[in-house]
Amino acid sequence: MVNRQPVVAVIGAGIAGLEAARQLAALGYKPVLIEKSSATGGHVAQWNRLFPDMTPAADVIEPLRAQTAGVKTLLGTEISAINRLKDEYNLVLSDGSSLLCQAVLFATGFRLFDASKKEEYGYGIYDRVITNRDLEHWFNTREDQRIRQPKAVGFVHCVGSRDLKAGNTQCSKVCCITAIKQAIEMKEEFPDAEVYCFYMDLRLFGKKYEDFYIKAQRDHGIHFIRGRVSEVGEAIDGRVVVKAEDTLNGKPVKVTLDLLVLMAGILCNPDAQRYARETGVAVDEDGFLKSRDNLAAITESSRPGVFFAGACTGAKTVPETLAEARSAALAIHQYFSKRV
Amino acid sequence: MDFGFKLSPSSAVNLDTVDRRRYDRLVQLQPDALTCIGCGSCSATCTSASWTGMSVRKVLLGLQRGRDEEVDKMLSGCMLCGKCTMVCPRGINTRQLILTLCRLDKNGEVVR
Amino acid sequence: MIYQGKQKIWADYQKEIPDNHYFYVRSCIRQNFFPASERYFLKICRDLLGRDIYETEHHTTCAGIAYHCDTLPQETAMTVVARQFALMTEAGYENLVTSCITSFGNYCEVLESWREFPELEAMIRENLWKACRREFNKPKYVAHASDLVYKLRGEIAERAKFHLVSRATGEPLRIVEHIGCHYSKMFPHKGVGGAEYPCVLSGMAEAWGGQVIDYPERRHCCGYGFRQYHVRANRGYSLSNTHKKFESMEPFHPDMIITNCPGCPYFLDRWQYVIAEQTGKTYGRNGYGIPVLTYEELAGLVLGVDPWDLGLQIHQVAVEPLLDKIGIPYDPARKYLGMDEKKIMTPGLPTSLKCF
Q1: How confident is the model at residue A4 (pLDDT cuts 50, 70, 90)?
Q2: C225: Cβ–Cβ under 8 A, 6 or more apart, which residues?
Q3: Both A74 and A160 in a single domain?
Q4: Are residues A187 and A295 in the same domain?
Q5: What chain B residue is nearest to A220 in terms of C-alpha separation?
Q6: Which of A128, A231, A236 to probe by mutation at the C interface, max C CB count within 10 Å?
Q7: Domain presence at residue B108
Q8: In this complex, is the C-beta atom of C342 within 8 Å of any C-beta atom belonging to chain B?
Q9: Three-state SS for C42?
């Protein structure tokens, strides 16, 4: 097949999709970004600041948006069906049009766990229980009636992660460091507040994460309690009563909080699972898309012409996602180079 | 009236009411104590631990959970040999920490 | 509190409760503790609402209490349950309704075990045949009696003589609902509203005019916990659990507690006396306790049944302040008259807890 400018459908215009599209365009291909929501940037665009350097999320998103300004971007567009042809894929879009492309890149990202499914934590029932996303929204907008000069704030790690009952046994990887980041931010905002982190394990694997942890302990006096929150109730004044076990002390603990933040975990985007079925690529046991090889070919699917970038194959950090997006663009480039 | 049974005291720690003044003063005087991660290196290497139950990790936790009596009992078992200081991965000066703690009363006042 | 959030969860845990034709099995202990509750369940369902509820004098304990106390093996308990199913089958019924929460949990657990391990069911069928030459069909539906009253709560409300509101102010009564552990903690989908925010009792309380209060220790066990109460050395734990609940609900000033378990109302009621004797503390207004009612007693009161016919004089905590608040008439002189209008004994008064 001779095609001077092959078309690559990039599903999802979060940071993975934007970065991959930018690279693909630079390599001389014609990426088309297909985005379900009305704006590009995905989850990261809704965040306020990013670990480990407290970089404003906009500093990541805006350059990506600027550098993909020339890329054809279909906003508010869903994919109704994906048809496999010989060497090509035909995407039927929600606006009735269709897109013929020579490669498909899944940059479908993740879905945040619905915290109300952990009924015992009372998200959606108790006013003072919010999620990590709600807190970022407050950092961005300062609009949330539930946050008013809190004197005691708690963070619950692993909400919907490492939890068979919640249907997700995987570690969501970024919540430990996000909790510490948000705990520090709350402590900076409300220095007199006591801040508690309830964790099972602290998984602080990334560059400078451990420094963040020490900073949270030493400079901010954040209390780390090793134990999973078992239940949340509401006191008469609307504050929440949290029960957990302090497993290092071997005793149950109870604390009354003005605000409880649930660190909702990362699940595969259910749309991605549907697209995967239609394109004929496998979904792994963990619910994420299955790479051809988890070590050497994480961005490649088991089907020719179908590639992955970012959180569609598992929870990822921002730099990991960006690196994978570039890697996927190169893999696509090699795929076309071999075919010519 | 004797029913032959009584209300049992709860073993739960109530963080709303726990008195942390001694801990707060300790970390004010010696902020590195804040960085304990409860790894247990101190207790594992402690010369007196197996006889007296001394554990720097448990001392720090006990202070934060209002268990002053247990803390004082553990402290009295310390021989100030300094082995725990050598092994602490966070670099906490545990020997100094114990000396500092012994100078504080329950209210966190420096009395010695 | 976001009420709509609870409604959303309740919607996930609704069950299709059959409207009619049940085989009824009683509790081992409720007829002693709350003598009129089961009788009024039958009277209300059968005579007032025209439902077909069958019971036979041949049924026994479900053996759940012995199973939970670890005094007999599960296979024995299952064979006893199988015999109840046989009686149901012989009577021509397919729906089972239990008075006891632990029975309900036990029946659900047996059926779930048989579903998971069909060879176990085959063994129990053989056991039953060898023991008493009986055969059975498994029930199509197992309901707890409170499920059925929940289902009929609207029909009861239509016939209500009294509503759960303060006669003086028109304000709804503040009601604590307490669900027996074995109702939905074992199988959340078998309970109306699930395990975290059950609505089987709150649904009744609201349908009859009351307002349900949610307090931090709402989910906590009453403390009966068979092996805690039945072993005297552990009895303090039972008491301590009840105490924990009362300490937690105290700031909400509840007017009453409703329950759907045989044990819970007994312990929540009697332990208020023991706590008062040991600590001098009472939780109701003016030195009284907080009345604890079964849902049948509450339904009876709402329908205008005389409180003494409902057996409320058997409660430790005085119910008169509650009756006065709602405006339910009662004759103090009849309180300790038995069925034949002869005086049954009048109890002595506690030192701390105020009673009549």
Answers
A1: low
A2: C237, C238, C241
A3: no
A4: no
A5: B34
A6: A236
A7: no
A8: no
A9: helix
A253 Cα to chain B: minimum distance (Å)? 5
Contacts of B7 in chain C (CB under 8 A): 236, 239-240, 243, 275, 278-279
Structural domains counted in chain A: 2
Quote the minimal CA–CA distance from B85 to chain C in Å: 43
Rounded to an integer, what distance in angstroms lies between the CA atom of residue C205 and that of residue A236? 20
The closest CB to that of B38, out of A221, A223, A248, belongs to A248
- Contacts of B among chains (3+ CB pairs under 8 A): A, C
Chain C contact for B3, CB < 8 A? yes
**A257 with A176, same domain?**
yes
Considering the domain boundaries, does residue B46 fall inside one? yes
Cβ–Cβ below 8 Å for B6 and C236: yes
Buried b (16+ CB within 10 A) or exposed e, B57-80: bbbbbbbbbbbeebbeebbeebee
Per CB-CB distance under 8 Å, the chain A contacts of B57 are: 248
Find the mean pLDDT for residues A249-276: 96
> Does residue A1 fall inside a structural domain?
no
Who among A126, A233, A236 is closest to C251 (CB)?
A236
Q: Tell me which amino acid residue A225 is.
A: I
Numbered residues of chain A with Cβ closer than 8 Å to any chain C Cβ: 116, 119-120, 122, 124-127, 231, 233-236, 238, 241
Q: Domain check: are A178 and A93 in the same one?
A: no
Beta strands in chain C (DSSP E): 22-25, 53-54, 95-98, 141-144, 174-178, 211-212, 256-259, 292-294
- Let me know if residue B8 belongs to a domain: no
State how far residue A109 is from chain B, nearest Cα, in angstroms. 33
Interface of C with A (CB under 8 A): 1-2, 5-6, 8-9, 194-197, 214-219, 248, 251-252
How far is the alpha carbon of C278 from chain B, nearest alpha carbon, in Å? Answer: 7
Q: C5, A124: Cβ pair inside 8 Å?
A: yes
Residue-by-residue pLDDT tens, chain C, 356 positions:
899 999 999 999 999 999 999 999 999 999 999 999 999 999 999 999 999 999 999 999 999 989 988 899 999 999 999 999 999 999 999 999 999 999 999 999 999 999 999 999 999 999 999 999 999 999 999 999 999 999 999 999 999 999 999 999 999 999 999 999 999 999 999 999 999 999 999 999 999 999 999 999 999 999 998 888 888 889 999 999 999 999 999 999 999 999 999 999 999 999 999 999 999 999 999 999 999 999 999 999 999 999 999 999 999 999 999 999 999 999 999 999 988 888 988 999 999 999 98
Residues A117 and A255 in one domain: yes
A242 token code pair: 């949290």
Domain that holds residue A61: 7-109+269-339
CATH number at A83 reads: 3.50.50.60
Scanning B22-61 for CB atoms below 8 A from A yields 27, 31-32, 34-36, 38, 57, 61
Rounded CA separation C1/C214 (Å) = 9
Q: What are phi and psi of C31, to 5 degrees?
A: -70, -20
Residue type, C199: C
At residue C8, the 3 state secondary structure works out as helix
Q: Are B34 and A254 a contacting pair at CB < 8 A?
A: no
DSSP assignment of A286-315 = TSSBPPSBTTTBTTB-SSTTEEE-GGGGS-
pTM comes to 0.94
What 3-state DSSP class applies to C73? coil
Q: Are residues A90 and A126 in the same domain?
A: no
Which chain B residue has its CA at the smallest distance from C237's CA? B8
Domain boundary among A244, A266, A288: A266
Instruction: Say yes or no: A245 and A182 in one domain.
Output: yes
Q: How many structural domains compose chain B?
A: 1
Q: Are A223 and A197 in contact (CB under 8 A)?
A: yes
B58 within a domain of the structure (yes/no): yes
| Chain B interface test: which of A226, A251, A256, A260 (most B C-beta within 10 Å) | A251
Residues of the domain holding B57: 21-102
